[in-house]
Amino acid sequence: MKKTLAIFSCVLMLCAGAAQAQVPVSIQQMQLSFAPLVKKVVPAVVNIYAKRVVQQRLQVMSPFAVNPFFNQFFRAPQFGNLTREQIQRSLGSGVIVGADGIIATNHHVIENAMEIKVVLSDGRSFDAAKILDDPRTDLAILKIDTQGEKLPVLQLADSDNVEVGDLVLAIGDPFGVGQTVTNGIVSGLARTDIGRSDYRYFIQTDAAINPGNSGGALVDMRGRLIGINSEIYSKDGGSLGIGFAIPSNMVRAIIADALHGGKVARAWTGMVGQAVTRDMLQSLHLKNTYGALTATVVKGSPADKAGIKRGDVILAINGKQIQDPEALKFRLGTVPIGSTIHLDISRQGKMMQVALPAEPAPAVPPPDKTLIQGLNPFAGAVVANISPALTQEMGELSAGAGVVVYDVKGGTAGLIGLQRGDVLTLVNGQKIVSVDQLKAFLAKANTPQWQVQILRAGRTITLNIAG
Fold first, then answer.
1. Where does the pLDDT of residue 24 fall: very low under 50, low under 70, confident under 90, or very high at 90 and above?
2. Is this model's pTM higher than 0.70 or not?
3. Would you state the pLDDT for residue 32?
4. Which of 3, 40, 86, 267 could be stapled to 358 by a disulfide with Cβ–Cβ 3.0 to 4.6 Å?
5. Which residues belong to the active site?
6. Are 361 and 385 a contacting pair, CB within 8 Å?
């Protein structure tokens, strides 16, 4: 076989042991097929059917609302809001990454699912259990019982070796029509300004990705997984040639967490990065806006102990360039706990190298997650003590200590507009420092008026509530 085989002949190149892809130079080369590669990888891609119960809101209309005479007495257009349970089914895809039945997919494919079924490419169906479900990366790991049978798997490539222009195949079940293969190229890397997850660092491809492809495989010409298809840019729900996949290096980290305790373990440095703008270049002695400016360094954290200071610009982690704060977050999210993090930083134009340990975030103080009840503005809110571990779980918070709204389940808290991530600062002039202190204060409070001060995304908001 000639060494000048084309890009489109890369499947046959693998069979022949060739390593370098080249531009096609003949009609014969253009007529070559992806079929051998497809036959190799398709058995490791599955369909996922999730069933969930959702609450559908009903409006019960007043029988007098349409009568002009009675309507003057019954101004409200309804008697009240009722809900009923409704079964909702969703379709997605997944990738077999463990021969014993370990499957990777998107979190949003199986979110809140009460039943998950996995259908293999040969038509066999299995009930699946969640091992790990991580909304922050939009990844989930499932397990099916294969009764000892070994399943075909996709090997994970190093997504850092992917280049713009590489040929790729996208495999999934778009619109439920059945397993489908599309091809294209990698059209962009390190896309950080889109996505539903907290770790926005995507491989962009023009291979057609549509609803139902979520959780499916993006593979290279060696049949290796380089990403999990996750997002599309679309105006009408269909493919416009811009799709996004979660890089395999993040998938690998989540698989490792699933198989070693079933809980995500991310390295915590104690520093928060922000974007470098053009207005900062002169004062930071930089030539371009690449990097992440250290905006906060938590006292006593690994970053603090390593000597990192506010104003340092992180340029690389373990030799990988940092384009922006999202890239910084992604790189830290893929670093194994117990390893060493090597940073290249710029401090007022002086290049430095710093090493710090990859440690889990401490859960001090304990979260003490508590659902507040009673006649007060926080009824229906789940509150928790802020700690480095909780901050890492929830994303960046507006304060380093105190009490945060962890969830809102309705009640008065929902009516007054409290949101997940709101940090409670003052209640009727009383500074709030812990969940225990908040509970004790609410137990003694007896007032018709409430004034609540919160921090939301760095802004102070004051709520005045009548009892």
1. low
2. yes
3. 74
4. 267
5. 108, 138, 214
6. no
**Amino acid identity, position 217:** A
CATH topology of domain 370-466: Pdz3 Domain (2.30.42)
Mean per-residue pLDDT for 247-265? 91
Residues ≥6 apart with Cβ < 8 Å to 15: 36
d(CA 324, CA 419): 27
Nearest to 368 by CA among 391, 386, 352: 386
Q: What are the tens digits of pLDDT across the range 50-67?
A: 887 665 555 555 454 444
More reliable by pLDDT, 57 or 281:
281
Residues, the chain: 467
> Where would I find the beta strands (DSSP E) of 422-458?
423-427, 430-431, 449-456
Say which DSSP state 413 is in: H
Q: Are 285 and 346 in contact (CB under 8 A)?
A: yes
Pick the closest to residue 448 from 466, 428, 429, 430 (CA basis).
Answer: 466
Paired residues of 231 in beta bridges:
244
Average pLDDT, the chain: 83
Q: Report which residue type is found at 262.
A: G
CATH match of 267-360 with 2.30.42.10: yes
Cα angle at 233 between 228 and 239, to 5 degrees?
A: 80
Give the start-to-end residue ranges of the domains of the chain.
Answer: 7-33, 44-265, 267-360, 370-466
CB-based contact 292:322 (threshold 8 Å): yes
Alpha helix segments (H runs only) across 351-395: 388-394
| pLDDT tens string 113-146 | 889 999 999 889 999 999 999 988 899 999 999 9
Longest dimension (CA), the chain: 90
The domains spanning 44-265 and 267-360 adopt the same CATH topology:
no
Pairwise pLDDT comparison (77 vs 363), residue with the higher score: 363
Find, among 344, 389, 339, 384, the residue nearest to 362 by Cα.
389
Q: Does the bond joining 365 to the residue before it have cis omega, within 30 degrees of 0?
A: yes
Nearest-CA neighbor of 207 among 177, 227, 235? 227
CB-count burial class (<10 Å; 0-12, 13-18, 19+) for 84: exposed
Q: Which two tokens stand for residue 248?
A: 């395999």
**CATH pick for 44-265 out of 3.90.1150.30, 2.40.10.120, 3.30.565.10, 3.40.50.280:** 2.40.10.120
